[in-house]
Amino acid sequence: xxxxxxxxxxxxxxxxxxxxxxxxxxxxxxxxxxxxxxxxxxxxxxxxxxxxxxxxxxxxxxxxxxxxxxxxxxxxxxxxxxxxxxxxxxxxxxxxxxxxxxxxxxxxxxxxxxxxxxxxxxx
Length: 123
Prior knowledge:
Layout (H helix, E strand, L loop, with lengths): L1 E5 L3 H13 L3 E5 L2 H10 L4 E5 L7 H10 L8 E5 L6 H10 L3 E4 L4 H14 L1
Parallel strand pairs: 1-2, 1-3, 3-4, 4-5
Helix pairs in contact: 1-5, 2-3
């Protein structure tokens, strides 16, 4: 699988990269929402880990852009968020829009692997 991580935290990028590569998948990263959106539009990824809270162009901005151009349903997006509390209604709404699921930060390797395995099983 080809997996993209979009996050402004280099430690999160390294964690996801390590996990993805240990599992034998291709990995790319983007350090912010604008770069991430460009990569998503240029390349077909099997899975995208997307940080919700980034400066300037957030994960929600990426989702809204993908929704506007009708390509959100073509993605397997896992939202990363440290503010998981109170996400119940928002998570349901985002899943209806087309994201796969939400993963609370700090995420450990096992949870990241579980998400990768769940997407891989769908493909």
